[in-house]
TrEMBL record:
Keyword Signal: yes
Gene name of this polypeptide: LOC111597268
Keywords of the record: Signal
Name of the protein described by the UniProt record: Uncharacterized protein LOC111597268
Signal sequence annotation: 1-20
Annotated organism of origin: Drosophila hydei (Fruit fly)
Domain of life: Eukaryota
InterPro entries found in the cross-reference section: Calycin
Length: 180
């Protein structure tokens, strides 16, 4: 009986700890004007498809990652022409955005260092850190996820997912051999 109460108490403290945690945002992510950072526009989507790991990131506004891996259809996404500032064929990609935060009246800079593996080489990380230093981004304010890095997959959907005209749909609701 005592053991069950102890376990229950530990479970309650654990839940309280999780629900009271807040993501803190370092003031260095906020700026009055967005810096002029060159966006890479000559990458093809095919070069970037597949699994990536968010090895380091500016604050992510949810406590626990709901899924370890997520998939995104990037067929019509402009993301690849507007957010990539660094690409290394050895397996590193840096995405960047600077969006106005109405609540603060300032711009919020978001940067993610993406790698092809959960354990990138020191050479890859050194190059990424050199780049972030060159654009004067506060790298020491990033959250280093390392082995906890969440993964996601970028893919191109090979077929249309919109509703097709009636002539292309299966005739299950119509009279005839396949219908009622």
């Amino acid at each position: 009986m005592y053991r069950h109460r102890t376990l229950l108490l530990l479970a309650v403290f654990f839940v309280m700890h999780i629900t009271t945690q807040k993501v803190t945002v370092d003031e260095r992510f906020f700026v009055e004007n967005c810096p002029n950072i060159k966006i890479i526009t000559n990458l093809t989507k095919e070069m970037l498809l597949g699994v990536w790991y968010a090895f380091a990131s500016s604050p992510i506004f949810f406590n626990d990652y709901q899924r370890r891996c997520a998939s995104y259809n990037v067929k019509d996404s402009p993301y690849f022409k507007t957010n990539i500032v660094y690409y290394d064929e050895e397996g590193c990609l840096i995405t960047y955005s600077c969006l106005f935060n109405k609540k603060r009246g300032m711009y919020f800079r978001k940067l993610r260092i993406l790698t092809r593996t959960r354990t990138p080489t020191s050479t890859i990380m050194y190059k990424a850190m050199e780049f972030t230093d060159s654009i004067h981004f506060p790298i020491n304010a990033l959250r280093w996820l390392r082995a906890e890095a969440f993964c996601f997959e970028w893919y191109l959907l090979k077929f249309d997912s919109e509703r097709q005209p009636m002539s292309y749909q299966a005739p299950f609701n119509q009279h005839g051999p396949l219908g009622r």
